[in-house]
Amino acid sequence: KNSFLQKYNDSMFVDLILKASKREDFKAVALTSGVYPDTKTIIKRMTHIIKEIRKKLPIIPIGVEPYVEDKNEIIQLKEAGADEIKINIQTPNKQVFKKTCPGMKYEKILDLLDYAVEIFGENKVTSNIIYGLGEETVDILNNIELLAEKGVVPNLRLVRINDQNKKRIEKMMNRKLENPPSADYIVFLSKQLKNVLKDNNLTTLEFKTMCQPCNCCDIVPFYDI
Q1: Which of 50, 82, 114 delimits the end of a domain?
Q2: Is the whole model's pTM more than 0.85, yes or no?
Q3: 65 in Cβ contact with 85 (< 8 Å)
Q4: Which of 26, 53, 82 is the last residue in one of the domains?
Q5: Residue 137: which H helix or E strand, with range?
Q6: Which residues sit opposite 156 in a β-bridge?
Q7: How far lies 52's CA from each of 1, 17, 21, 49, 120, in Å?
Q8: In this predicted model, what pLDDT tens digit does every residue of 112-160 receive, in sequence order?
Q9: How far is CA 219 from CA 42, 61, 149, 155, in A?
Q10: Contact indicator for 119, 74 with CB cutoff of 8 Å
Q11: All residues at 6 or more sequence positions from 160 whose CB lies less than 8 Å from its CB, including other chains
Q12: Are 92 and 135 part of one and the same domain?
């Protein structure tokens, strides 16, 4: 583990980004992370990397997808130079959340999202809603409404089930996984999301970093539909 941290240190990540910035198609920086060795260390490292990048690239958009545990960490990331932030609600159903995210608190994430909008502004905060784990359609639609009313732009993400994770997920959920949602259903949800965003004066088009402008993994309102 120590050799891993020594090899992939902050300076290496900064150098990689600065090297990439010389490309003609370089448009933005997006940082995500795990939680090893602990969340405080990760936030500290992420903040340092952002500051170093901001010194060299003062106007480049920077987005962050951290695992935050308190409001002060949101402030740290903003003051370091981050422009956009993703804090994931994870699932639209609290019962599914308890099974898939043990140790995490649903209401706390909502509170942090509220604060993130206060610090970063509307159309600067996004959150993954992962579906396909047995929730009802109404759960997804209600969650979309809830986040949008806070000024958060939800990002709908269908869970990826494969041979490597299926048995583990079924054990965690204590049930067999049904057939995955159809393409029509995925498009239906994306259209519903687009309508909710319109109703709340939100859009995916203002994001300069992360999933919305990338639009490789999901059906993104205003880009794909």
Answers
A1: 82
A2: yes
A3: yes
A4: 82
A5: helix 137-149
A6: 129
A7: 25, 10, 13, 5, 20
A8: 999 999 999 999 999 999 999 989 999 999 999 999 999 999 999 999 9
A9: 30, 23, 21, 9
A10: yes
A11: none
A12: yes
